[in-house]
Amino acid sequence: MDFHGIDLNLLVAFDALMGERNVTRAANQVGVSQPAMSAALSRLRTLLGDPLFLRSADGLLPTQRARDLAEPVAQALRQIEAAMVEKPAFDAASATLTFNLGLPDYPSFVLLPTLLQALQTQAPGISLNVHAVNGRDDAVELLDAGAIDAAVGVPPSNADGRIKARPLLRDEFVTVLAHDHPAGQHGMDLDTYLSLQHVLVSPEGHLYGAVDHALAQQGRRRRLALTLPHMFAVPAVIAQTGMTATILKRVALHAQASHQLALFPPPLALPEIVFDLMWHRRSDTHPAQSWLREFIATQAAISCAENGTRASRR
Q1: Tens digit of pLDDT for each residue in 52-80?
Q2: What is residue 188's three-state secondary structure?
């Protein structure tokens, strides 16, 4: 392929299309008209001999050729930008702006108190606007739309390279019972566990979770008595019923009803839960956005150290 005289703007257009999956939004990002972006896509298709993006109900879907090109092109553009454009440093202490964050209940519970306390002293002019994130892919949709600057949540089902991520929070599951429940007097084996009625937490309203997946691998099932979208209602329900639930440890330890609960290791192997800090690659090098991500990561480490899980208790 002869690259002599190639228009660098075509690579900028490709990068925007890869990030936005929408011609109009990509045009707005680059600062050109929609017809100009469509023309750039046509030239790219001719140059590379590949359709690159296919139309679908969910927007433009990249071909494998586009996916292969995405990261090398993005890295090249970042290197060119770093070499030619001197970006001003971001001064959080004097800045006055609002960041939009996508947070489910659990990260809100763990992070927000520490985040807000630190902002009041380190960056008093910065405020946060929190958007609800419930489904696994809600954060991706909000990041794609530019509605949020960053999100914290479980990894999405398919971010396809345009969503950057780094691990932020980790927690483990515990099984909880009312502290005086007779089923917990001698520990919690699998048969005892399955003899009880269970509460399942599913933000998406599913009737199947990590516990059910682990049980299915052993050819076993549990009895669901209640399905809830929010984990923080579970401790109070368990404390006043004969039911059991398997929830994240910090929720059980810091709930108002924690003194009424007995905590046990789950009687089957369950994975550790990891919550990622996520952002759109269009904001990867933006000074204010970079500061925000590092600030969140620092405060998350502090919060986890202060409110970390303690040893399981009966």
Answers
A1: 999 887 788 889 898 888 888 888 887 78
A2: coil
As a whole number of angstroms, the distance between CA 269 and CA 190 comes to 11
Is there a contact between 97 and 149 (Cβ–Cβ < 8 Å)? no
Phi (first) and psi of residue 104, to 5 degrees: -75, 180
Regarding beta strands 150-153 and 126-132, do their DSSP bridges make them parallel or antiparallel, or are they unpaired?
unpaired
CA pair distance 266, 172, nearest whole angstrom: 10
Cα separation, 197 vs 156, in Å, equals 30
Whole-structure pTM value:
0.72
**Structural tokens at position 139:** 């954060």
C-alpha 31/C-alpha 36 separation (Å) is 10
Cβ atoms within 10 A of the Cβ of 58, count? 9
Give the domains, in start order, of the chain with CATH numbers.
Answer: 8-84 (1.10.10.10), 97-170+274-312 (3.40.190.10), 173-270 (3.40.190.10)
